[in-house]
Fold:
Amino acid sequence: MSRENCSLRILSWVVSLALSGVVQASADGPDYYRVTGIASDGELVLRAEPTSHGARVASLPPQAHCLRNLGCQGGLSLQEFSTLSEAEQQKRQLANPRWCKIAHPAGSGWVEGHFLAEAACVEPSQPDQRIELINFSGKAGARVIKGRLQGRQYVDYQFQGYAGQTLDIALGGSNRQHYFNVNPPGSEVSMFVGSSSGNQFVRQLPSDGRYTVRTYLMRAAARRNESSRYTLHIKLSGEPLVAVAAHRDAVIAGTPYHASATVACAYDAPALSQRCEAMVIRRSFDGDATLEVRWPAGALTPIRRILFIKGLPVSSDAPEAVSSKRQGDVTSIRIGDQESIAVPDALIIGG
Structure:
């Protein structure tokens, strides 16, 4: 091989590696990524640390884009890519996986690098979608919103909510096929679906974060290009349940969680036949807390957030109601007909 051809080949390697992000980096590589390699009904987990055991920050949908590159670490170096066999490369990647830190509206955190692809940050054309941010004068407040939808149009009203507050929503529309959904922070899986539950919603919020109220026309009415004039009442009331400060109850390093445990659980399976990771944010020493349960692979939503008041589960971010019973120092929770969790008191209250 001539020196010129050899140089061109090496240059080609360097370019391809830089674009794919295989080369180790701190803040180099493309400016933006998009998600790749995730099933249409799946998600990409955004973690607080560059490890599969890192605390979950948020979940990204499979079509997420405009993910700003904040730097990568791990993966193959150019020398390893050039000199190691394919089997050796795979072994090295398992020992030193590539993680990238990205910025997304749901939050900043680390994701597995092989689920990212370079992409320009060009927002897709969504003429039927509108997002409006609601800023209350304080941490609580009320808004009355009047508007009009036609056809496939929908509006996402987004606002910051806090654990323990009560969210009260009512919709009045001129079209009987006009509804709203409520989505919890960082998720496209609704905790309330108006088309099956009506046009009124009242619930204590299980966690802190940005909630979304999406108002829309049902598909049949949208296809007929029908319209609806509406009035949407959104009220957020009550004092937030603030997390216990780290100097009073130590948190797991790099996370907001005070404790974690593996608990008996079941998702669409025989009662308590599985094991799930559970994380807790304690909001008092009397049993006020947000519990996060990480479901096994294949669940419709990978994480469930449950609000405890005085040691008892009172609300969640699931559309179904929460029920529970006590057995000694364990609370057995049932959500709908698919989810079951056994939670020891020590996890919620500490000790």
About this structure: The chain has three domains: 3-118, 129-237, 259-349. The longest strand covers residues 227-237.
